[in-house]
Write a structure and sequence with these properties.
Helices cover about 30% and strands about 15% of the residues. It is α+β, with helices and mostly antiparallel strands. It folds into 2 domains: about 30 residues, no CATH class; about 160 residues, no CATH class. The two termini are about 40 Å apart.
Length: about 240
């Protein structure tokens, strides 16, 4: 259901694309002005020119590669959503909205932060070029943006625990975050108090929040993908020519 490779989806999708292109005149880079596509989300090419201009490392930099390296990165995501009309003239004006978007796209995937496979959750934030440029003009590096998102993309400990075992059977029992810390299966930051409403991060480290720059250069939109943890952990390899 709702996937490629099945006749109804392939036939209707192909028919609809032909109608849009040949009758409505919906042409890529001309009249098709979407920031990001919402179907067939298979490949993303970063805007290397913008990355160079703002001094940010490419997505592959998270895996030790340098700007200019020809690299393909592969991962598996469980879903995502567009974050429209990100507003602000400075990074500080924008980061709360972006952090909230990362939280809103995350639910059961938290078992890959604490639980099934500790600290393998890697959500992906795609910024349109104008958003990345605006953030960089505030003097922020990509690492500083990751830290700010890490500090803000937090939820109450009680909600985290509901995703871990109260609402699902992905982690047996109804353990508290403090229990995981005591068992050495979680970082101490998840047990700074016993207040169930204390705020805790949704990933283990700031650089676990992956960031890419792509899309229509004049649209102030972003996209967040929730990640499938160890079941689709990101890898990157150099393309040899």
């Amino acid at each position: 259901m709702l996937r490629d490779g099945f006749q109804a989806n392939t036939s209707v999708g192909r028919f609809w694309r032909l109608i849009l292109r040949n009758i409505a005149g919906f042409l890529p880079h001309e009249t098709d002005k979407a920031t990001f596509g919402n179907t067939w989300r298979v490949a993303i090419a970063e805007n290397e020119t913008v990355l160079k201009n703002i001094g940010w490392p490419p997505f592959a930099g998270a895996f030790g590669f340098e700007r200019g390296d020809d690299v393909v990165s592969v991962s598996r995501y469980t879903g995502g959503g567009v974050i429209t009309s990100v507003y602000g003239q400075q990074a500080e004006h924008m980061v709360d909205y972006l952090a909230d978007a990362i939280v809103s796209q995350t639910s059961w995937e938290l078992v890959f932060t604490i639980g099934i496979s500790r600290e393998t959750y890697r959500p992906l934030l795609l910024l349109s070029p104008i958003l990345a440029e605006t953030i960089a003009k505030s003097g922020w590096t990509k690492a500083q943006l990751q830290q700010a998102l890490f500090d803000r993309a937090q939820i109450p400990a009680s909600r985290f625990e509901e995703y871990l075992g109260h609402w699902t059977n992905l982690v047996p029992g109804r353990r508290r975050l403090i229990d995981f810390v005591n068992l050495k299966k979680a970082d101490a930051r998840f047990a700074e108090s016993e207040d169930p409403e204390r705020m805790v991060p949704i990933v283990g480290q700031p650089d676990h929040l992956l960031i890419g720059v792509a899309g229509d250069p004049l649209r102030t939109n972003a996209y967040v993908f929730a990640h499938n943890g160890m079941l689709g952990f990101p890898v990157a390899h150099r393309v040899e020519r």
